[in-house]
Amino acid sequence: MDTTETLVTYERRGDVALIGLDRPAKRNAISDRFVEAIHDAVQRAQTEARAGVIFGHGPHFCAGLDLAEHSEKPLFDAVKGSRRWHAVFDGIERGTIPFVAAITGAAVGGGFELAAAAQIRVADETAFFALPEGQRGIFVGGGGSVRIARLIGPARMGDMMLTGRVLKAAEAEAWGGVSYVVPEGAALEKAVALAEQMATNAEFTNYAIINALPRIADMSSEDGLFTETMVASLATMTGDAKDRLRAFLEKRAAKVANPNA
Ligand code: 1HE
Protein backbone atom coordinates (compact mmCIF):
# COMPACT_ATOMS: atom_id res chain seq x y z
CA MET A 1 0.00 0.00 0.00
CA ASP A 2 1.04 3.56 -0.68
CA THR A 3 1.83 4.89 2.82
CA THR A 4 1.55 8.48 1.60
CA GLU A 5 -2.22 8.06 1.17
CA THR A 6 -4.10 10.48 3.44
CA LEU A 7 -6.84 7.92 4.19
CA VAL A 8 -8.99 10.31 6.23
CA THR A 9 -9.84 13.98 5.77
CA TYR A 10 -10.88 16.10 8.71
CA GLU A 11 -12.71 19.39 8.59
CA ARG A 12 -14.58 21.44 11.16
CA ARG A 13 -17.67 23.39 10.23
CA GLY A 14 -18.64 25.27 13.37
CA ASP A 15 -19.52 22.69 16.00
CA VAL A 16 -19.57 19.81 13.50
CA ALA A 17 -16.55 17.68 12.55
CA LEU A 18 -16.57 16.12 9.08
CA ILE A 19 -14.57 12.91 8.81
CA GLY A 20 -14.08 11.75 5.21
CA LEU A 21 -12.97 8.22 4.35
CA ASP A 22 -10.44 9.00 1.64
CA ARG A 23 -9.23 5.94 -0.18
CA PRO A 24 -11.61 5.99 -3.12
CA ALA A 25 -9.32 4.01 -5.46
CA LYS A 26 -9.86 1.03 -3.13
CA ARG A 27 -13.49 1.95 -2.44
CA ASN A 28 -12.44 3.13 1.04
CA ALA A 29 -11.52 -0.42 2.10
CA ILE A 30 -10.21 -0.26 5.66
CA SER A 31 -6.61 -1.30 6.28
CA ASP A 32 -4.87 -1.36 9.67
CA ARG A 33 -3.44 2.10 9.05
CA PHE A 34 -6.86 3.31 7.94
CA VAL A 35 -8.57 2.17 11.14
CA GLU A 36 -5.98 4.14 13.14
CA ALA A 37 -6.63 7.22 11.00
CA ILE A 38 -10.36 6.87 11.73
CA HIS A 39 -9.55 6.55 15.43
CA ASP A 40 -7.42 9.73 15.41
CA ALA A 41 -10.08 11.72 13.57
CA VAL A 42 -12.84 10.49 15.89
CA GLN A 43 -10.78 11.38 18.97
CA ARG A 44 -10.05 14.83 17.56
CA ALA A 45 -13.73 15.36 16.83
CA GLN A 46 -14.61 14.41 20.42
CA THR A 47 -12.25 17.06 21.78
CA GLU A 48 -13.27 19.97 19.55
CA ALA A 49 -16.75 19.38 18.09
CA ARG A 50 -20.23 18.72 19.42
CA ALA A 51 -21.30 16.31 16.68
CA GLY A 52 -19.62 14.48 13.80
CA VAL A 53 -20.32 13.20 10.31
CA ILE A 54 -18.56 10.25 8.70
CA PHE A 55 -18.78 10.04 4.90
CA GLY A 56 -16.91 8.46 2.01
CA HIS A 57 -14.99 10.35 -0.67
CA GLY A 58 -15.87 9.05 -4.12
CA PRO A 59 -19.03 7.16 -5.01
CA HIS A 60 -18.80 4.54 -2.24
CA PHE A 61 -19.02 4.88 1.53
CA CYS A 62 -16.83 1.89 2.34
CA ALA A 63 -16.12 -1.59 0.87
CA GLY A 64 -15.25 -3.01 4.31
CA LEU A 65 -12.13 -4.74 5.43
CA ASP A 66 -9.07 -4.42 3.20
CA LEU A 67 -9.10 -7.97 1.88
CA ALA A 68 -5.62 -7.67 0.33
CA GLU A 69 -4.07 -6.89 3.72
CA HIS A 70 -6.28 -9.36 5.58
CA SER A 71 -5.43 -12.32 3.38
CA GLU A 72 -1.81 -12.16 4.58
CA LYS A 73 -2.58 -12.10 8.31
CA PRO A 74 -1.64 -14.80 10.81
CA LEU A 75 -4.50 -15.85 13.12
CA PHE A 76 -3.53 -13.85 16.18
CA ASP A 77 -2.98 -10.66 14.14
CA ALA A 78 -6.52 -11.09 12.80
CA VAL A 79 -7.79 -11.45 16.38
CA LYS A 80 -5.99 -8.27 17.45
CA GLY A 81 -7.19 -6.49 14.32
CA SER A 82 -10.83 -7.31 15.04
CA ARG A 83 -10.47 -6.21 18.67
CA ARG A 84 -8.93 -2.95 17.50
CA TRP A 85 -11.91 -2.30 15.19
CA HIS A 86 -14.14 -2.96 18.20
CA ALA A 87 -12.29 -0.39 20.30
CA VAL A 88 -12.25 2.23 17.56
CA PHE A 89 -15.90 1.77 16.61
CA ASP A 90 -16.87 1.73 20.28
CA GLY A 91 -15.32 5.19 20.45
CA ILE A 92 -17.87 6.26 17.84
CA GLU A 93 -20.85 4.48 19.37
CA ARG A 94 -20.17 5.32 23.01
CA GLY A 95 -17.94 8.38 22.94
CA THR A 96 -18.85 11.88 24.01
CA ILE A 97 -20.51 13.27 20.86
CA PRO A 98 -23.03 11.83 18.40
CA PHE A 99 -22.08 10.82 14.84
CA VAL A 100 -24.07 10.59 11.61
CA ALA A 101 -22.93 8.26 8.82
CA ALA A 102 -23.64 9.69 5.34
CA ILE A 103 -23.84 6.67 3.05
CA THR A 104 -23.53 6.62 -0.73
CA GLY A 105 -22.85 3.52 -2.85
CA ALA A 106 -21.43 0.51 -1.06
CA ALA A 107 -21.70 0.03 2.70
CA VAL A 108 -20.40 -3.49 2.59
CA GLY A 109 -19.08 -5.77 5.32
CA GLY A 110 -16.98 -3.63 7.62
CA GLY A 111 -18.39 -0.54 5.87
CA PHE A 112 -21.86 -1.44 7.14
CA GLU A 113 -20.29 -2.20 10.54
CA LEU A 114 -18.72 1.27 10.63
CA ALA A 115 -22.02 2.89 9.67
CA ALA A 116 -23.76 0.85 12.39
CA ALA A 117 -21.49 2.39 15.03
CA ALA A 118 -22.82 5.87 14.26
CA GLN A 119 -25.94 6.99 16.10
CA ILE A 120 -27.76 7.93 12.87
CA ARG A 121 -27.45 6.67 9.30
CA VAL A 122 -28.46 8.71 6.25
CA ALA A 123 -28.39 6.95 2.87
CA ASP A 124 -28.88 8.41 -0.57
CA GLU A 125 -30.58 6.47 -3.36
CA THR A 126 -27.26 5.08 -4.62
CA ALA A 127 -26.58 3.28 -1.33
CA PHE A 128 -26.51 -0.50 -1.00
CA PHE A 129 -25.77 -2.77 1.93
CA ALA A 130 -24.30 -6.26 1.91
CA LEU A 131 -22.51 -8.71 4.18
CA PRO A 132 -20.51 -10.93 1.80
CA GLU A 133 -18.38 -12.53 4.52
CA GLY A 134 -19.77 -16.00 3.72
CA GLN A 135 -18.49 -15.73 0.15
CA ARG A 136 -15.08 -14.55 1.39
CA GLY A 137 -14.73 -17.32 3.99
CA ILE A 138 -14.55 -14.89 6.89
CA PHE A 139 -16.97 -13.44 9.44
CA VAL A 140 -18.02 -10.00 10.59
CA GLY A 141 -15.31 -8.73 12.93
CA GLY A 142 -16.05 -5.04 13.32
CA GLY A 143 -18.95 -5.32 15.75
CA GLY A 144 -21.61 -6.20 13.16
CA SER A 145 -22.91 -9.29 14.94
CA VAL A 146 -23.88 -6.99 17.80
CA ARG A 147 -24.69 -3.64 16.17
CA ILE A 148 -26.15 -4.68 12.80
CA ALA A 149 -28.07 -7.52 14.42
CA ARG A 150 -29.59 -5.03 16.85
CA LEU A 151 -30.50 -2.61 14.09
CA ILE A 152 -32.16 -5.00 11.63
CA GLY A 153 -32.56 -8.16 13.74
CA PRO A 154 -30.42 -11.31 13.77
CA ALA A 155 -32.71 -13.21 11.35
CA ARG A 156 -32.41 -10.52 8.67
CA MET A 157 -28.70 -10.19 9.25
CA GLY A 158 -28.38 -13.98 8.95
CA ASP A 159 -30.33 -13.82 5.67
CA MET A 160 -27.92 -11.19 4.30
CA MET A 161 -24.88 -13.21 5.38
CA LEU A 162 -26.18 -16.59 4.22
CA THR A 163 -27.74 -15.62 0.89
CA GLY A 164 -25.71 -12.58 -0.11
CA ARG A 165 -28.89 -10.50 -0.14
CA VAL A 166 -28.07 -6.90 -1.06
CA LEU A 167 -30.32 -4.17 0.35
CA LYS A 168 -31.10 -0.96 -1.46
CA ALA A 169 -31.49 2.20 0.63
CA ALA A 170 -35.28 1.92 0.88
CA GLU A 171 -35.06 -1.73 2.00
CA ALA A 172 -32.41 -0.86 4.56
CA GLU A 173 -34.71 1.87 5.86
CA ALA A 174 -37.67 -0.52 6.09
CA TRP A 175 -35.47 -2.91 8.09
CA GLY A 176 -34.24 -0.21 10.46
CA GLY A 177 -30.70 -0.18 9.06
CA VAL A 178 -30.88 3.48 8.12
CA SER A 179 -33.00 6.31 9.48
CA TYR A 180 -33.19 8.62 6.47
CA VAL A 181 -33.18 8.07 2.70
CA VAL A 182 -32.51 11.13 0.54
CA PRO A 183 -32.10 11.73 -3.22
CA GLU A 184 -28.79 10.92 -4.92
CA GLY A 185 -26.05 13.30 -3.85
CA ALA A 186 -27.92 14.68 -0.82
CA ALA A 187 -26.62 12.38 1.96
CA LEU A 188 -23.75 14.55 3.17
CA GLU A 189 -25.83 17.73 3.25
CA LYS A 190 -28.61 15.98 5.20
CA ALA A 191 -26.09 14.39 7.59
CA VAL A 192 -24.47 17.77 8.28
CA ALA A 193 -27.89 19.34 8.92
CA LEU A 194 -28.73 16.58 11.42
CA ALA A 195 -25.33 16.93 13.10
CA GLU A 196 -25.80 20.71 13.36
CA GLN A 197 -29.17 20.10 14.99
CA MET A 198 -27.71 17.58 17.48
CA ALA A 199 -24.86 19.99 18.26
CA THR A 200 -27.41 22.43 19.71
CA ASN A 201 -28.54 19.89 22.33
CA ALA A 202 -27.20 19.99 25.86
CA GLU A 203 -23.85 18.18 25.85
CA PHE A 204 -24.65 16.02 28.86
CA THR A 205 -27.97 14.93 27.38
CA ASN A 206 -26.22 13.90 24.15
CA TYR A 207 -23.65 12.01 26.23
CA ALA A 208 -26.43 10.27 28.14
CA ILE A 209 -28.31 9.37 24.95
CA ILE A 210 -25.16 7.88 23.41
CA ASN A 211 -23.97 6.02 26.48
CA ALA A 212 -27.08 5.17 28.47
CA LEU A 213 -29.48 4.02 25.74
CA PRO A 214 -27.40 1.10 24.40
CA ARG A 215 -26.51 0.01 27.95
CA ILE A 216 -30.12 0.17 29.09
CA ALA A 217 -31.07 -1.91 26.05
CA ASP A 218 -28.78 -4.62 27.45
CA MET A 219 -30.38 -4.52 30.92
CA SER A 220 -33.45 -6.06 32.47
CA SER A 221 -36.46 -3.69 32.58
CA GLU A 222 -35.98 -3.23 36.31
CA ASP A 223 -32.31 -2.29 36.00
CA GLY A 224 -33.05 -0.15 32.96
CA LEU A 225 -35.69 1.87 34.74
CA PHE A 226 -33.44 2.40 37.76
CA THR A 227 -30.53 3.48 35.54
CA GLU A 228 -32.84 5.82 33.64
CA THR A 229 -33.82 7.54 36.89
CA MET A 230 -30.18 8.00 37.88
CA VAL A 231 -29.22 9.44 34.49
CA ALA A 232 -32.28 11.69 34.42
CA SER A 233 -31.49 12.99 37.91
CA LEU A 234 -27.89 13.70 36.98
CA ALA A 235 -28.99 15.56 33.84
CA THR A 236 -31.29 17.76 35.91
CA MET A 237 -28.30 18.83 38.04
CA THR A 238 -26.38 20.32 35.11
CA GLY A 239 -26.18 24.07 34.56
CA ASP A 240 -27.44 23.45 31.04
CA ALA A 241 -30.67 21.96 32.37
CA LYS A 242 -31.20 24.86 34.77
CA ASP A 243 -30.53 27.47 32.04
CA ARG A 244 -32.59 25.74 29.38
CA LEU A 245 -35.58 25.03 31.64
CA ARG A 246 -35.59 28.65 32.80
CA ALA A 247 -35.36 29.86 29.18
CA PHE A 248 -38.42 27.76 28.31
CA LEU A 249 -40.43 29.01 31.26
CA GLU A 250 -39.52 32.61 30.39
CA LYS A 251 -40.64 31.94 26.79
CA ARG A 252 -37.14 32.49 25.40
CA ALA A 253 -36.75 28.91 24.07
CA ALA A 254 -38.21 27.45 20.89
CA LYS A 255 -41.31 25.31 21.31
CA VAL A 256 -41.57 21.89 19.72
CA ALA A 257 -42.73 22.52 16.15
CA ASN A 258 -46.19 21.04 15.59
CA PRO A 259 -45.98 19.32 12.18
CA ASN A 260 -49.80 19.42 11.87
CA ALA A 261 -50.18 23.14 12.52
C1 1HE B 1 -10.79 -3.67 -2.41
C2 1HE B 1 -11.93 -3.90 -1.61
C3 1HE B 1 -11.71 -4.51 -0.34
C4 1HE B 1 -12.59 -3.01 -3.45
N1 1HE B 1 -10.45 -4.81 0.03
N2 1HE B 1 -9.56 -3.99 -2.01
N3 1HE B 1 -15.69 -6.44 1.29
C5 1HE B 1 -16.11 -6.98 0.16
O1 1HE B 1 -16.19 -8.17 -0.05
C6 1HE B 1 -16.45 -5.98 -0.93
C7 1HE B 1 -15.49 -6.11 -2.07
N4 1HE B 1 -15.65 -5.04 -3.01
C8 1HE B 1 -16.65 -5.03 -3.93
O2 1HE B 1 -17.53 -5.87 -3.97
C9 1HE B 1 -16.62 -3.91 -4.92
O3 1HE B 1 -15.31 -3.37 -4.94
C10 1HE B 1 -17.62 -2.77 -4.64
C11 1HE B 1 -19.06 -3.27 -4.91
C12 1HE B 1 -17.50 -2.23 -3.23
C13 1HE B 1 -17.33 -1.59 -5.61
O4 1HE B 1 -17.29 -2.08 -6.94
P1 1HE B 1 -16.55 -1.21 -8.07
O5 1HE B 1 -16.81 -1.91 -9.40
O6 1HE B 1 -16.92 0.21 -7.96
O7 1HE B 1 -14.98 -1.28 -7.72
P2 1HE B 1 -13.90 -2.45 -7.97
O8 1HE B 1 -13.40 -2.39 -9.38
O9 1HE B 1 -14.43 -3.76 -7.52
O10 1HE B 1 -12.75 -2.07 -6.94
C14 1HE B 1 -11.85 -1.01 -7.20
C15 1HE B 1 -10.55 -1.35 -6.53
O11 1HE B 1 -10.78 -1.44 -5.12
C16 1HE B 1 -10.04 -2.73 -6.94
O12 1HE B 1 -8.63 -2.68 -6.86
P3 1HE B 1 -7.74 -2.52 -8.22
O13 1HE B 1 -6.32 -2.53 -7.69
O14 1HE B 1 -8.11 -3.66 -9.10
O15 1HE B 1 -8.15 -1.18 -8.79
C17 1HE B 1 -10.55 -3.63 -5.84
O16 1HE B 1 -9.78 -4.80 -5.69
C18 1HE B 1 -10.38 -2.72 -4.64
N5 1HE B 1 -11.25 -3.12 -3.55
N6 1HE B 1 -13.02 -3.49 -2.28
C19 1HE B 1 -9.41 -4.55 -0.81
N7 1HE B 1 -12.72 -4.74 0.50
C20 1HE B 1 -13.61 -6.44 10.35
S1 1HE B 1 -14.30 -7.73 9.52
C21 1HE B 1 -15.15 -7.05 8.16
C22 1HE B 1 -15.34 -8.09 7.13
C23 1HE B 1 -15.60 -7.50 5.81
O17 1HE B 1 -15.57 -6.32 5.61
S2 1HE B 1 -15.93 -8.62 4.58
C24 1HE B 1 -16.40 -7.66 3.20
C25 1HE B 1 -15.23 -7.21 2.41
UniProtKB/TrEMBL annotation:
<comment type="similarity">
    <text>Belongs to the enoyl-CoA hydratase/isomerase family.</text>
</comment>
<dbReference type="GO" id="GO:0006635">
    <property type="term" value="P:fatty acid beta-oxidation"/>
</dbReference>
<dbReference type="InterPro" id="IPR029045">
    <property type="entry name" value="ClpP/crotonase-like_dom_sf"/>
</dbReference>
<dbReference type="GO" id="GO:0005506">
    <property type="term" value="F:iron ion binding"/>
</dbReference>
<dbReference type="GO" id="GO:0016705">
    <property type="term" value="F:oxidoreductase activity, acting on paired donors, with incorporation or reduction of molecular oxygen"/>
</dbReference>
<dbReference type="InterPro" id="IPR001753">
    <property type="entry name" value="Enoyl-CoA_hydra/iso"/>
</dbReference>
<protein>
    <submittedName>
        <fullName>Crotonase/enoyl-CoA hydratase family protein</fullName>
    </submittedName>
</protein>
<keyword id="KW-0456">Lyase</keyword>
<dbReference type="InterPro" id="IPR014748">
    <property type="entry name" value="Enoyl-CoA_hydra_C"/>
</dbReference>
<dbReference type="InterPro" id="IPR017972">
    <property type="entry name" value="Cyt_P450_CS"/>
</dbReference>
<dbReference type="GO" id="GO:0016829">
    <property type="term" value="F:lyase activity"/>
</dbReference>
<dbReference type="Pfam" id="PF00378">
    <property type="entry name" value="ECH_1"/>
</dbReference>
